[in-house]
Every structure is written in C-alpha cells, then in structure tokens.
Amino acid sequence: MAIPKEPRQLMINLMYLVLTAMLALNVSAEIMNAFWDLNNSLVKSNSLTAQGVKQTKEGIQGTLDKKPKIKEPLNNGIDQVREEVSTFVEYIEGIKTYLIDETGDKNGTADEGDMKDGLPKGKKDKDITTRYLVEVDKKGDEIEEKVSALKAKLIEIYSNTVSNKAIKDEAKLRDEEIKEKIANITDNITVGIDESWQDKASDDKNSWAAYKFKQMPVVAALPVLTKLQTDARNSEATIVNKFAELVGGREIKLNKFFPVMNAKKGYIIKGEKFEAEVSIGAFSSDFAKTSSISVNGQRVSLNAQGIGKFSETASSYGKKKLKLTCNVTNPLTNEKFSESSEFEYEVGERSATVSADKMNVFYIGVDNPISVAVAGAPSSQVKVNGSGPISVSGSNGKFTVKATRPGEAKINVSAPGINKSVDFRVKRIPDPVARLSKSSGGAMGNGEFKAQAGVGAFLDNFDFDAKCSIQGFNLTRVAKRADPVEAINPGARYGDKAKRLVNAAKPGDIFYFDNVKARCPGDSAGRKINSMVFKIK
Description:
By secondary structure, this protein is an alpha+beta fold. Helix content is 36%, strand content 25%. It has four domains: 22-246; 256-347; 357-427, Sandwich (Immunoglobulin-like); 433-536, no CATH class. The protein contains eleven helices and 21 strands. Strands 15, 17, 18, 19, 20 and 21 form a six-stranded mixed β-sheet that branches. The protein has a four-stranded antiparallel β-sheet with strand order 4-3-5-6, with no helix packed on it. Helix 3 (68-102) packs antiparallel against helix 5 (139-162) and helix 5 (139-162) runs antiparallel to helix 7. The N and C termini lie far apart (100 Å). Residues 18-27, 107-116 and 349-358 have low confidence and may be disordered.
C-alpha cells in the first residue's frame, strides 16, 4: 500500500490501523473470558458429579445391609473406582496449578490489578504450555498414557466386581449377560483419547499433546485439562450407578403413559353394541430390553416406549382370535411377570360395491364362477340361489352358475340381516373365428396350404374354458382359365373331394370357404361364421 503524502490522509490511515488493533484486542479478551467461563463451568460440574457418586454409595447401603454376602465386594469395587479417579483428578489438578503458578500467579499472590478480570495473570502465555506439555517436559504424552491406563483400570475393576461369584449369584447373571455388561460399560466410559483429532492435526501437530497444547494460551489449555477430569468423574458415576443396579439399588420409574382400549370384537354391524374395556397403560424404558409380547406365539418386537407392531394378512372370511401374552422381567430384581388376554376380529368384504351393469353376463354352456361375501356374516351363513334360466351350486363363498338359454337372470343372496338380488344377462358364447392354421384368409404358400388337414374354430379373447367345433363348409377352387369346382364338406376335416381340390392347388389358384358353420357349448344348432378366401402363391 502506498504511503499518502498528505498529512490529513496519513492521519486517517493511522487512526484506521489503531481502531483495527483495538477491535482485535476486544475480540481476544472476549475469547479469553469464554475459555475461563468454560473451565469454571466444568469445575462446578465435576463437584456436583462427585457429590452424586457419594450419595449413590450411601443410598444403597440400606439394601446392602440386607445382602451381607455382596456388601463387601461391591463396596470394594466402588472404593477402588473412586480411588483411581480421585488420583487421576488430583494429578491433572497439579498440572493446572503448575501452569497458573509459572505464568505469574504463584500461589495466588498476583496483585489485584493482575486479577481484576478474574483470569490468571499469565492467561495469554503460550510458551509455558508448549514447553511444559509438549516439547521439553512432555507432560502431554504422560497425560495421554495416564488417561489410557485409567480407562483400562476402570474396566478391570468393573469386570472383576461384576464377575464376583456372590454378586453374580445375587443378580442372577449368566456368563453371556456378564460379557454384555462389560462390553456395555466399555462403550459408556467417557474417559479416553478421541482419535478423531488425527484427521484434523497438521504436520507440526502430529501428536495428541501437540494438537491440544502447542502454542495454546494457558487459559485455553485449562478447560482441556478440566475436561479430562470431567470425563473421569462421569465414568466414575457411570460405573457406580451400574453397581447399584446390580442389587436393585435404583428405582424404576414409569415414564410412558398411554390410553388402552381392548374391544370384545373388531367388527360389528348395524344394530349391534360396541363394547370395550378402557384403561391407562404405563411403561418404563428400563423394561425395553427385558419385555416382550407375543401374538398367537409370534414374538413382537418393542421399541423404547414399549410399543410394537403386529400385522397379519386375512386369507379367509370369518371370525379370527388373537391370544396376546406379555412377558416382563424386572431388570433390577429379575422378577418375571406374565399376563395374557384375547382379542377377536372378523374378516368380511368391504361394504363398498362396484357394479358394471352392462358387463354382468353369464354364458350358456360353460361354468360361470362367482364369489359371494356378506360383510358382518360368516360365509357359512350366506345362502345363494338363482332365478331365471340359471342354476347355482357351491358353498363357502365360491359358487358356479350354469345357464340354459339367453335372457335375464338374478343372483339372490341372503344372510342374517340382509337380502339382496343382483341382475345378470345370459348370452350365448361369442362366435368363434374360422381359420386355416393361424390365418383367416389372404395369400398362403402352396406347401403350407396343402399341409392343412381342415378348418378350425377358435374363440379369441374368451376367458372361459370352452371349445367350438366346425360342422361343415363349402370349398370352391377357381384355377386359371378353368371353371370353378366346388366340394361340400361335412365336419372340420377335409373329405375325399375337398382333399383332391386342395392337393390340386397351384400358384395363382383361389380357394373359397363359404357357408362355414360351427357349434359351441350350449348351442342347440350350428351357427354360421366367417367365410375365408385364400390365394395360392
């Protein structure tokens, strides 16, 4: 930046630099205060945690007096944990005191002017943290080792205590449960070095101590050290609380309430009464892992609120019963409770009905299947009959209708509380299509034409299992420069005369299939269907 020649402009620039420096100093002071406030908050939290651990031990003594066999080993385990944690906390406290003393606040003797903001005199000193914790005395590496050693020792104490035969027998613990508890306590001990710092560290801070303390002011290092004390106290509280749970030293509180309705029936019809028992359900999240519900023997998983979901697909109509059984084990006393109840629901057809009036058709000569269900009535109580040119047979919701002649018909349905009729039309099976192989006319090769044995009748796009037969047809051959020759053929297959005409076919000949008649199931006489014309190529 060029230096201005005018005194006025030079003065303005100098004032701007001074203002910027003052702002930087203010921000720095705010950050220092924040670090100090954080440290003090952690110190207060540690004191409360230590007090809570003490109260927990005192609170279970009455329970332990009634269980003398486990009183000594359990109290020994608690005392060992507290001793290890206290030793570690005092060690870290000594390091904190050293940092504060060496930066000018020796034994708290700094003058009032130095401590007027409540912070240590050497709050911004970076040399002492770098020298003492990282480069010369390397106390940071020692702290890292002590943290790992403390975690391992706490896990060892917990493992030995929970595996003690007297405690194991009192708490009714299986070996698998002990392993699970040890794994759980290992995951829940908070003291330890979080290795995620390695992903963030730069080349000049390639160790945990360097990453945490190198070129860090004292006031920033203090909360890091106090946080280690906090983790140790929290781990102590976790283990002591787990010891208390082993002997029922913790009260289980119901923390989830919800309305419960147990209906006698899951389906009713108009005129019936709906009856149900209503109550208030209560659950404790402590029971989440020791409780289960089964429905007709099928286990239903429960979430932390004690709620599970059950479903089944209805495959038939009628009444269904569900037997519900709940099994609860008190995680503190291992007491087991079991209760059962029954629930009934009914499967019927949805009450909504869709009717396509112009498509309600029965066909003569085939079995017409229908399904009938009445909402609110078991299928065994449903009666079905027909009126008009039809007859109905079947049961349990599945029926077959047979029709004898075209016209109008009704399906009559009756069940307790309902009588209903549905209109249908009775029709003949649609006309079949006459074909040679897959063709109903047009050009056909001479070889393919001669290979056919006769005419077939095909019901295209007809869903019923029905076959029509050809009753006869007239076959006429028209050859080039020759008179037409006709053969009247009975049946579907070529007779002698028709066969001679077919075998005489030559390219350019034209064959006419006229007066083709077919008979389908239910027909009293044959019906005339499509004619065909083929040109031989």
